[in-house]
Amino acid sequence: MNWINNVVRPKIQKVFKKRDVPDNLWIKCGNCGEMVFHRDLAIALNVCPSCNFHMKLGTKERFQQLFDQGEYEEVALPDVAVDPLKFRDQKRYPDRIKEARSKTGRNDAVTVAHGALDGIETVISVQDFAFMGGSLGMAAGEGIVKGAQEALARKAPYVVIAAAGGARMQEGILSLMQMPRSIVAIQALREEGLPYIVVMTDPTTGGVTASYAMLGDVHIAEPGALIGFAGPRVIEQTIREKLPDGFQRAEYLLEHGMVDMVVHRHELKGTLARLIRLMTHRPASPRKDALPVVQPPVPAA
Asked: DSSP string spanning 64-83?
């Protein structure tokens, strides 16, 4: 009996033991419900190959898509007070910051980098929704302002990839003050004649929309992006009326003149390059390989 228990049974269990398989190999599209293999989704820049639904894209992936050969240099941002109001709700505010930093690997919601975009030195700020909903606090505000200052110093175009749920309530009035600060920084760019382009992704709302996100020389939106100040549910409850279909979505705003163009993520770099060359009076790119076209993977039959 001991021989059966100690030798035979463990060997049988080892043969039929299930392998430990990661649970994130397949990702479900939030629009059509299609299950997409994670590598195929990464190749497609987090765009569903079945319905073209634009899922959220991380900071690193944004930079790698837009900068030539994925090469760039991040800009150091000024330090700010972590918890100026000693705020606490269900958790202490420093604990929330720590969790967000651990989750994203970023110091805060906004990261700034510079590098070549189609051979043109460009400064890009990316607002990451994964970091506390991309909320605008003092650190994020410093990121937007520092990006503008870096563009001024380098005489370079400035591109902001916006994604936010609004101001960060844990910082109170200090977060709201980032709105006028960012406006002043953008005005300095305009006075120097430097291009300022905003790419609004899903979602771009609240104080971000009410400040630097709507001050671009050109406003680009990703397909289906929610863009506005208050959300549709809040508006419906306030005016007590049913909103039109697609209200506050990128395509609706394009029809009503709030954005200049809706651009598929795979075409974003090429569009930015053409706009920057047009706005800086530069000839079209002579390099055929400067703007690679990302082909989405063909879904399995």
From this structure: HHHSGGG--EEPP-----S-
Which pLDDT does position 284 carry in this prediction?
Answer: 82
Residue 221: Cβ-neighbour burial (10 angstroms; 0-12, 13-18, 19+): buried
d(CA 243, CA 232): 7
- What domains appear along the chain, each with residue ranges and CATH number? 57-279 (3.90.226.10)
Predicted pLDDT at 293: 46
- Pair of tokens at residue 213: 């996100």
Q: Which position has the token pair 């992704």?
A: 201
Whether the predicted pLDDT of 21 surpasses 60: no
N residues, the chain: 301
| pTM of the full structure | 0.87
| CB contact burial 23-50 (16+ within 10 A = b; e otherwise) | eeeebebeeeeeebeeebbeebbbbbbe
Per-residue model confidence as pLDDT tens digits over 266-293: 999 999 999 999 999 999 876 554 454 4
